Structures are given as C-alpha cells and as structure tokens.
User: Fold DUF2653 family protein from Paenibacillus phyllosphaerae.
Amino acid sequence: MVRIYTDEIINAVCKNIADRKGVSPSEVEAQLAWDEQYGFTAEVWVQGRSQYLVEANLLEAIEQYMYTQYNRRVFRSQITLDADEEFWADIAD
Assistant:
C-alpha cells in the first residue's frame, strides 16, 4: 500500500486542473475539505475564478498523478481518502 499526504493530493489536483484549463500548475490554488454532507471536496482557484470539486474529481486527479509521477496505474476502487489533522489517500496494491 502507498500513502500520499495533503501536499501530494493538492499537487495532483493542481496538475489535473491545470491540464484541463490549459494553464501552468503554479497558476492553480487548491484547498481540501471534508464535511458530513458532501464528503471530500476541494475548492480550486484559477485566474481569479473558483470551482468546487467533488470526491470523484479528487480520485480522478489522484489516479492521473499516480500514473504520471509514480508510473503506477491505479483505479478509483483502490483509493481511500481519509483525514484527521491532515488529509491522506491510501492506494491499495
């Protein structure tokens, strides 16, 4: 099992959104959140506009990040998000 923490999850989200919007990852800001109604979410800002991402978007970003950064093909069913004082994602083998 591999575990990635808050910084890498945010990097995954920023890279994913940057690819979608055609901007540099450094132009994207992201903040992770969790609440009982919506589960895991992120608010991202690109060029002065904000957008909310749901858990499925976060899992997609992590899938792509694992492939591009670790050369590892993972599927959503292998990823478990969790949080206490910080966020992390466990990726099963």
Q: What stands out?
A: The helical segments are 6-21, 55-70. The chain has one domain: 2-91. The radius of gyration is 13 Å.
